[in-house]
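Z., the sequence and structure:
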Amino acid sequence: MRKLIFFYCVGILLLLACSCRGEGRQTDDSDDSIVRDGIAYKRADFPLYIDPVYNGSSDPMVCFNSQTNKWYMYYTSRRVSRTDLKGIERIHGSPIGIAESSDGGATWTYIGDCNIDYKPDPEPTYWAPEIFEYDGLYHMYLSYVPGVFDNWNHPRDIVHLTSKDGINWTTQSVLDLGSKHVIDAGVFRLPNGIWRMWYKNEKAQSDIIWYADSEDLYHWTDKGAVDLGGINGEGANVIFWHGKYYLFVDEWKGLSVYLSDDATNWTKQEEFLIAGIPIPEENTSGQQRPKYVAASRGNHADIEVVGDHAYMFYFSEIPPGGETKGLAVYVQELVHNADGTISCDPTAACYINLNAGRQ
C-alpha cells in the first residue's frame, strides 16, 4: 500500500486528461450472457464496483454468505473523495465496506460497512480483510493501524475476528507474528488440515512475504520469510488450481505469479498479470508514468476458484471521462495455460458465475 499512493497521486492527474477513446477496453464481446456446458454466465459490470461513499474501493475479496445466500465483497474503503485530507491520510481512517451480489458476481450493490468491535484507538484504520467461512463461523484477518496519519511510520497489526453473519465482528486476538509492522493476510487450508497464512512483514530486509501456520485458526506459529527471490511486494493470495498451488503477489508493477507443488517451495513465472497495456499515442517521454488502457494495470487481487474457472478481483483507477474519480474494483477470468502458467486479458469482457459450483 505504501508505494501505491505515490503512483496513484501522479497517475490520477494523467488519467483525468485521457479520453474514453484512449482508455476504453478494446473488446468485441457484446452478449450480456453466454452458456457453457449448460451453465449460464453473465457479463460482469465494467468497472465491477465503485464504493458510493468515498469512491475508494480497494483490496477486494469475496466470500459466499450462507445466511443470505448471496456473495459478499469486502474491501478497504479508502477515503479518496475526502479532498480536505492529505494523500496518505485518505488511505487511513478507512472502514471495511461490503457489497453484495445476487447474480453470481456480475453486479454488486453496497449494503454498508462491517461492524468491527476492535477499536482501541479514537480513529481506527482497517485495511485488506481476509474473510472466509469455516464450520459455520466467519473468520476475518484484518490489517489494523492505530489512527490516521500522513506518513507510514506507525505500527500495523493483523487482528483475528469472527462473525456469525459476516457483518458484525468480534475480536479474538491480535496475532503475534514477530513484528509490529504486518499487513495483508492471505489464508489457505492445506491438505493435511494445517491453515497457512501469508502476510507482508514490512520490517523484513529482503523477502517481505512471510508465512505462519495454525491448527485451529486461533493460534499461529510464525515460520519466517517465504523464499521468493528477494522481491518487494504485498497482498499475497494463494489458490489451488489444476493440481498446483499458485501464489499471487502485488509488486506495484503488476501481479507476480508463483507455482508450487507443496505451498512451500515456489517458482516464479515470467509473465506478470495486470501489469498495464500502454497507450502509445497517449504517452510522451516527459511523463513520469505511462498511460494505460483502463483496468489493465491493477493491484491487490483476490482469486476465487470455481471448478475449472478462476476469477481475479482487483482494484485500479476508475476510467476517466466521467464525473466519478477514484478507485474501482474489476474482475477478470484467469487462463490456465498448457505449461502451467497463468495469464489473463484485461481488455476482454468477463463472463462470471460464482454460483456454478453450487448448482
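The longest helix spans residues 4-16. Confidence is low (pLDDT under 50) at residues 2-28.

Let me know what you think.
H.
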